[in-house]
Design goal:
D-amino Acid Aminotransferase, Chain A, domain 1; 6-stranded antiparallel sheet; binds pyridoxal-5'-phosphate
Length: 282
Amino acid sequence: RIVYVNGEFVPEEDAKISVFDRGFLFADGVYEVTSVLDGKLVDFPGHMTRLGRSLSELQMDTPVSQEEMEAIHRRLIADNDLVEGMIYLQVTRGAADRDFAFPKDTKPSLVLFTQARDLVNAPAAATGLKIAFVDDIRWGRRDIKTVQLLAPSLCKMAAKALGCDDAWMVEDGHITEGTSNNAYIVTKDGAIVTRNLSNSILHGITRAAVLQLAAEAQIRVEERAFTPDEARDAQEAFVTAASSFVMPVVEVDGVTLGNGKPGPIAKRLRELYVAQARAAAI
Ligand code: PLP
């Protein structure tokens, strides 16, 4: 695999980052994941806008221009013959002598790599996910897409230990989101409920696109926090993320939803999203 690191395209085994990089020592960095369909970038402007916001919230410089960022993505798609999958992008504050206070003039490190994966024909889309509820132990700025992912990793491992595929994290009696996706339930009267945007969750790029598609399909949407009880009582459920599009959920906290198969609204939104993503990919 050819990866990008600080201006160079190199085989992955030749890519190097300083041990003093603050990404390594402090998880002082941000990332984005953009999906690729038919060799083209999905929702790319949205991901780049959110990257800019994450960087500015952490007082970090943008490492390269927008045009260069897009050119790097395209070159990695070409060099790796990527037809379907993801491009991971990470910006860290760069190398500095280890100190909690960071110098203002570090040179940010930029790393990108590709991951080939079947996104449209993902096996989990046919069966649906089983979700466990786990305490949300993350920090207070989940709207910034930082690389400090140990808390959600532990939450996901706790869910796996319970025989589930993923966790929905719970704080103050309400679901925040999945470990790497936004969470939705469909009520018995057919409304989609998903948590409103705040610092408590990541502002998903796929979330924005899917809520738009739901509105166009005249499905009622309520953006508000919902409880584990409401989730257990839901007709169906699903999650969204760049790497999974719309993924049905068939079980929460040991309770089977509907008939235990992916629900009609989740299936329909997945089809609508895939069609829209394909058509709009650049
Ligand atoms: N929430 C969290 C915590 C995530 O890590 C992610 C994606 O990685 C999402 C939500 C979904 O965001 P997006 O649709 O932009 O991929």
